[in-house]
Design a protein that fits this description.
The complex is a heterodimer of chains A (596) and B (222). By secondary structure, chain A is mainly α. Chain A is 60% helix and 2% strand. In chain A, the strands form two sheets. Chain A has a two-stranded antiparallel ribbon. Chain A has a two-stranded antiparallel sheet with strand order 2-3. In chain A, 57% of the residues are buried. Chain B is mainly alpha-helical and 222 residues long. In chain B, helix 2 runs parallel beside helix 6 and helix 4 packs antiparallel against helix 5. Classes of the chains: A mainly alpha (596), B mainly alpha (222).
Chain lengths: 596, 222
């Protein structure tokens, strides 16, 4: 290892005692694990909620086991009421989008690996970092608390469209306290993520080790850096929007509620507000959020693939440039979520055009992945399988995006299951596959134990096939005009689609059950897994130069000196290896490529 | 060409500017628990973080500005609001506070760690604190004046935005005052770093710029 002795003084002293070590820790690695744990908790909760929804959609009048016990009002005799269905749908989506898709790939992995991969001993502001997690955790608690107060959580959907979200309890169960708690939780969540960006950006810009130039940064570092830039601008807009929504509820203001609105025979005491204002503010955040969820996955997949392909991807610079282009364009396309809001057709066109343009850098990235895999000797393991799965899901979900980007088609499909299929594949499942790829790849480094590869591969195949069984039929349902967000299908044109819903429900239950293989694997391996070597995948980036798990100060009191690119694979190194670590002394640089 | 490792080590141990990717990461604490000069010469991350913070705050107020413009154009209920005159006096107070903080910053000489303690005329810092408090107090007076005229948060969308924007700004100023109090404690322990002071000063000046922008916005749109 090529590095410099470091001054023993650290950002902060090693923690003493359980509380400082594991609860209010300043160590970026512990904070990363805390975020990961929060993500697991949220994904489990969100998954159970999706099961309840799916059972209800398949067998609408059948009692759902256990639900009646928790909410006798929402599910008398266990049969879910329409209101409870919408509440569960809202909480499922909110938990998944904010506390899973944002937390796990960005906050969890980013916290753990960003400082290590750039060669730093910690984030520059450990107290803000700790605060970031705990603020996010408080946001989670506030959100979940809405299950237990008043008439339950909001039913306005994760997009919380006004006026439904702004008029209070007259609009239905959960629209009073539940909606305020939702807005408060999301506002608090935004603060937590802004604190995260406050650390991620200076870490990348200022704390890189000697020799770690921009062009030597791993894909993941770029991905987290770009994501933190997007988060900085997106969450800073959503937060004041949530404040306005809360004020409409508790202070009698009229930001989002129009005049003379009558809901459930009650005249709403607001006047003059703009319902579309919420949509503009929300989607200015909402579309970048899609990329906040997926860009870290792109980084992870590129990182994992390159390691397992044993050669660099076709073009480092083009991938980074494409991700930067996607991030830039993500602010110009948000209006495509509002094609059915009655906007001027010229405005629709203005948003449609960049929406189609943004597919170009996304396609370029996919082509580079596929081109790099072509005729390669890919090492098949759980991480590389999930990386391939990510690409598959991203392509499948992305193709339907071409249709939805065009207003004339979107108007027909917007309120149908076609959109549900699209965004679940391209944003949710793809991002989750990126999270899984990251877990199988980095678990040995994070916990010092190897995961069970056989279980990992079983988990992959069940999840891969299951995800397609769940989400591809959604597209068919959409073409059949099956309206989304409905809790029951009683119209003539939807009744014959119920068998499809039942098939999806069974697939969802089986695929969800398959996740227990994953839960078992990560818990069992934590204690009884094979001890992990420092570099189990023969990787080149800095996280593989240090012990598994890393010591408190990451590099054992030394500062690495980076002399190589992040992906020096497929080379004929003098030590007989086919790779050169980033901190390897220059005199063992590759002599000749092993393959062209 | 192979690189001489000894040369690399020599260059790392030599203090120089240039920053990340070219030097060792800066450490945040003093070796002896007291003042520490940034011997490695890397730019302190705070100098980047302050711009990150300013960008986030700018986005927040940009969102609120766009909300104001959209809301004003969406209904027929928008009423003009006469701004309390004390706002202009408050503006003057805040601008002067920036001057006093800048005087303090320019007067400040950090300790070198060789037995030389930091030096600064703390009077300017305390004056900044006092003026900051006067500003927030003045904003409170403005709110009370409006309430005295029967103009409350929910009276009209224009008053809603007035209270919202001024309160959001005042909260940020209070945050800045918290930062200045932190500077005071650091100054008293002689562990104040120049970079910390620079960050606090940038933030405080930004509060000025933000307030002047808000005042123009409120004057023009309300």
């Amino acid at each position: 290892m090529h590095n410099m002795p470091a001054d023993p003084t650290l950002h902060h002293a090693p923690p003493q005692g359980f509380i400082r070590k594991y609860v209010f820790s300043l160590d970026h690695k512990v904070i990363g694990k805390q975020y990961y744990g929060l993500g697991l908790l949220a994904v489990f909760t969100g998954m159970v909620l999706s099961w309840i929804m799916r059972i209800h959609l398949g067998w609408t009048n059948a009692p759902v086991p256990g639900v009646g016990f928790f909410t006798p009002v929402g599910a008398p005799g266990g049969v879910i009421t329409p209101e409870l269905y919408l509440q569960i749908m809202t909480m499922h989506a909110t938990l998944m989008v904010f506390f899973v898709l944002t937390v796990a790939p960005f906050a969890a992995y980013g916290n753990f690996f960003l400082p290590i991969q750039v060669g730093a001993e910690d984030m520059p502001f450990p107290h803000f970092n700790m605060l970031s997690f705990w603020v996010t955790f408080v946001a989670f608690c506030v959100l979940v608390s809405s299950f237990f107060v008043g008439d339950g959580p909001t039913l306005a959907g994760w997009t919380a469209y006004a006026p439904l979200s702004a008029v209070g309890s007259a609009a239905g169960p959960g629209q009073g306290t539940g909606q305020v708690l939702w807005a408060a939780a999301i506002g608090i969540f935004c603060i937590g993520q802004l604190l995260g960006s406050l650390n991620f950006i200076p870490t990348t810009l200022d704390l890189r080790a000697k020799g770690m130039t921009f062009s030597r940064m791993p894909y993941t570092v770029w991905a987290w850096f770009i994501t933190s830039l997007m988060g900085l601008t997106a969450f800073a807009v959503l937060m004041p929007a949530c404040v306005l929504l809360i004020l409409d509820h508790v202070a009698g203001t009229s930001f989002f509620v129009a005049s003379n609105l009558v809901i459930n025979d009650q005249l709403v005491p607001h006047a003059g507000g703009s319902t579309l204002l919420w949509q503009h503010l929300f989607w200015f955040f909402g579309h970048p959020e899609v990329y906040i969820a997926i860009v870290p996955g792109m980084g992870i997949v590129s990182h994992v693939l390159s390691t397992n392909l044993r050669r660099p991807l076709l073009s480092y610079k083009v991938i980074i440039g494409s991700i930067l282009t996607i991030a830039f364009l993500s602010y110009m396309v948000y209006g495509h979520h509002m094609f059915v809001s009655g906007m001027n057709p010229a405005s629709s066109l203005a948003f449609s055009f960049p929406t189609l343009i943004i597919t170009i850098p996304a396609t370029i990235i996919v082509l580079i992945w596929l081109g790099s895999i072509y005729k390669s000797r890919l090492r098949i393991n759980s991480a590389s399988l999930f990386a391939l799965g990510f690409i598959s899901m991203f392509i499948s979900g992305g193709i339907s995006g071409f249709f939805l980007a065009q207003p004339t088609i979107d108007i027909m499909l917007h309120a149908t299951y076609f959109v549900v299929g699209h965004f679940h594949l391209v944003m949710a499942v793809a991002a989750i596959f990126g999270i899984f790829a990251g877990t199988y790849f980095w678990y040995p480094k994070m916990f010092g134990r190897m995961l069970d590869e056989r279980l990992g591969k079983l988990h992959f195949w069940l999840t891969f096939v299951g995800a397609y069984c769940i989400f591809m039929p959604f597209h068919y349902l959409g073409f059949a005009a099956n309206v989304r967000r409905y809790q029951a299908f009683v119209d003539d044109y939807t009744i014959h689609l119920i068998p499809v819903h039942r098939f999806i429900t069974v697939a969802a239950l089986v695929t969800g059950a398959a996740q227990f293989i994953f839960f078992y694997n990560i818990i069992h391996s934590r204690f009884w897994g094979k001890p992990a070597p420092d570099n189990p995948w023969e990787g080149t980036s800095l996280e593989w130069t240090i012990p598994s798990p890393p010591p408190f100060d990451n590099f054992g009191g030394k500062h690495p000196i980076v002399t190589h690119d992040a992906y020096q694979y497929g080379v004929d190194a003098p030590n007989g290896k086919d790779y050169v670590m980033q901190d390897a002394p220059e005199d063992i640089a590759p002599r000749a490529p092993a393959e062209s | 060409m192979p690189v001489d490792v000894n040369e690399i080590e020599k260059s790392v141990s030599t203090p120089r500017l240039g920053g990340s990717g070219h030097d060792r990461p800066p450490r945040m604490n003093a070796n002896d628990g007291r003042l520490r000069a940034l011997q490695d010469g890397s730019p302190p991350p705070g100098s980047t973080a302050i711009w990150v913070g300013i960008a986030a705050i700018t986005m927040t107020f940009a969102a609120l500005t766009s909300a104001l413009v959209v809301r004003q154009g969406s209904g027929m209920d928008w009423q003009r609001l006469a701004l309390p005159n004390i706002l202009f006096l408050n503006t003057l107070v805040l601008l002067v506070s920036s001057v006093t903080l800048e005087l303090f910053r320019r007067d400040f000489l950090p300790a070198t760690g060789n037995g030389v303690t930091s030096h600064a005329n703390g009077l300017w810092l305390y004056a900044t604190l006092a003026l900051g408090l006067v500003f927030v107090g003045g904003q409170y007076v403005a709110w009370k004046q409006l309430q005295g005229e029967g103009v409350y948060l929910a009276s009209n969308p224009s008053s809603s935005f007035f209270y919202l924007l001024t309160a959001a700004h005042a909260l940020h100023v209070l945050g800045g005052l918290g930062g200045l109090l932190y500077i005071v404690t650091k100054l008293q322990r002689t562990t104040l770093r120049k970079s910390t002071l620079d960050v606090a000063t940038k933030y405080w000046h930004f509060m000025d710029v933000l307030w002047v922008y808000l005042l123009v916005l409120l004057w023009a749109k309300l």
